[in-house]
Amino acid sequence: MKLLRYVTGDETYTGVLNGDEILRLGLRNITELMLADAAFVETGIIDKLADARVLPPLRPGKILAIGRNYAEHARELDNEAPSEPLVFAVLPSAVIGHGDVIEWEADITAQVDWEGELAVVIGERARKVSVAEALDYVFGYTIANDVSARDLQTRDKQWTRAKGLDTFCPLGPVVVTADEIPDPQNLSIVTKVDDEVKQKGSTADMIFSVRFLIAHLSRAFTLNPGDVILTGTPAGVGKARKPPQFLGDGSVVSIEIEGIGKLTNRCRVI
Q1: In terms of Cα–Cα distance, which of 177, 126, 133, 168 is closest to 150?
Q2: Which residues on adjacent β-strands are paired with residue 223?
Q3: What residues have CB less than 8 Å from 200, skipping those under 6 apart?
Q4: What mean pLDDT comes out for the span 152-162?
Q5: Could you tell me the pTM of the whole model?
């Protein structure tokens, strides 16, 4: 299923996307579907996607992200490939949805970069799980843009502001349930800026697989239903280009992942 949250009229709903139609569900949010006592309730109401405003598919409890998880991306930034996952946190307040605006103040950052990524949505409480069983804890997958302020990364010496500014974590447009993506290591990722291809990669090129990341993270943190893991970005980011290229006022970023869909956001500098 392709699940999404959306607004039509003045009300917020959760539904199943089928082409250009949405089957409305009797649920407040996707996280309810992860709970053992929640029921999948069809209301029988069909909404038109064209009449809906798409919201972030969920509000994560926490977002754990992985840096340099593609060898070519590490090399393009003159970094060595890590020997173990490079883990950092992204603030949940950074989350926006498909069609929302990525926004930043010009006097805070002038080097805003794109990073198209596969995002993993945890569906069950996971603590110290094995690599072999790790995918059993996945509810589904969505698309993320791990927007990065490169000058803040350099200046701050750590990544909290660079990765966590408001609007810097677009997610969506849907969560595709895990049964429709049996192999998360075989998905193409394409990022375009203003219709020009910037990143073209495959999740097959991850250094650390989704299975490994879940097992590794669950040794350090309890993963709860609704938590999200950002799995890293392929080569092709703006900072690595010669000369470097960054997003600006009016730039449009679209990230497409096979089997999930396309996440598109416009940029605004204030």
Answers
A1: 168
A2: 126
A3: 188, 189, 190, 191, 234, 236
A4: 95
A5: 0.96
